[in-house]
Amino acid sequence: MSDDFELLDAWRGGDLQAGSKLFDRHFESIHRFLRNKVGDDTDEVMQRTLLACVETRDRFRGASTFRTYLFGVARLELLAHYRRRRKLNNELDIESKSFFDLDPSPSTVVAKHNEQKLLHEALRRLPIDLQIALELHYWENMSATEVATVLEIPSGTVKSRLRRAKEMLREIMESITLSKTQLESTMGDLDGWAKQLGETLREGAAVSRMTAKDDNDDEPPSGAAAAT
Fold this sequence. Notes:
Elements: H1 4-12, H2 16-38, H3 42-56, H4 66-85, H5 99-102, H6 114-123, H7 128-139, H8 144-151, H9 158-176, H10 180-188, H11 190-215
């Protein structure tokens, strides 16, 4: 199997199939990343992310992995989506605002366990970049350096951010649940419940990918075809 850089080089050389394979490889992870934050607008932001990669592919010099680069683009498109939606001319306050603040409507994610539901609701109430940091850590197994690249912050600050995010997560869960047993169960195996929630979201992404392929006569749901 070709690695990401081999596929990227082939795509840059005009091989559109290589571009489709590259995006398809990361589709479920990026879809999961977006779905937990924009709900019904996931497909729109996903398409904008892929098109942004098409437009900027030649500026990517390989200083990080392609996956890290792709998540960085997805994060920027995510923030741009909410700026457009809220008609903001300046940057979002990612240090204090949460995705729940930006869109308090009920999530479309169907959790399999009460612990997953509690964790999901609490994640959406974390400040934006703290939520992203935790998800990249738990769901993508990213290193501190990779998380820092996506968030555009010094790598030395990642561990302290993750620690603060976990502390805030507990405080939020305490405020939104009346069940001490459920709270302790969730926090007692935070790593396990976080990974299970991630798998639930990934399953939803897989279904979305198959639906998209069926709707497009089995063509890959990527922006690679736009790279002419």
